[in-house]
Amino acid sequence: MPFESLTDDKLADLLNCPKKVLNPQAKCKNKDGHEQINFKVISTDGSDYKFEVYKRQNKREGMEDDFSCGISWIAPNGETLTLKRYNGCNHNHSNQIEKTQLGYNCHIHYASEKYIRNNKKAEGFASITDRYNIVNGALHCLVTDCKITGLNTTPDETQQIGLFDQ
User: d(Cα 9, Cα 14) in Å, to the nearest integer?
Assistant: First the structure.
């Protein structure tokens, strides 16, 4: 299936089908100052979809907010398409078609029919989020949002409650 024929409904089906990690004990690899771990993921609803989930963190001093977690669909022909990506706040993302800037905020990228049809990165559109601020929190959001089991994650403590708040 060529990616150009993907609709928003098909992209939603890929994201919303239940999934399971096959290699939860995958090992981290270090390359060029980054640490990355890749997980093999399959759908569990009989649709036979295959995915890859990754967690990538810049390990250089002062670069803690340079991270990304993502899920890619592996098409039957072996090509991959990033469906969703959770980034840190280390850069000012620009939504090219909408001509908007997100500033230096954590943000989530979404694959869309609009971006594919306009020959942009499928997941070129992003929106700001306050659901995470570190890489492990981003991975937790990805696993939760994309209905993935078989991987233990923990959420960020992004909502601090003051002593006198009720």
Answer: 9
Give the integer Cα–Cα distance in Å for 87 and 44.
27
pLDDT digits (tens, 9 = 90+) for 10-68: 999 999 999 999 999 999 999 889 999 999 999 999 999 999 999 999 999 989 899 99
Cα–chain center distance at 106: 12
* Residue 166: other Cβ atoms inside 10 A: 4
Which tokens go with 113?
Answer: 């029919």
Which residues are within 8 A (CB) of 163 and not within 5 positions of it... i.e. 6 or more apart?
Answer: none
**Distance between CA atoms of residues 39 and 95, nearest Å:** 28
Please count the other Cβ atoms lying within 10 Å of the Cβ belonging to residue 74: 16
Query: What span, in angstroms and rounded, lies between the C-alpha atoms of 72 and 86?
Result: 12
Question: Which residue, chain included where needed, has tokens 């993502």?
Answer: 70
Q: What pTM does this model have?
A: 0.91
2-20 pLDDT, tens digit each:
688 899 999 999 999 999 9
Exposed e or buried b per residue across 104-142, where buried means at least 16 C-beta atoms within 10 angstroms of its C-beta: ebbbbbbbbbebbeeeeebbbbbeebebbbbbbbbbbbb
pLDDT of residue 70 exceeding 60, the answer is yes
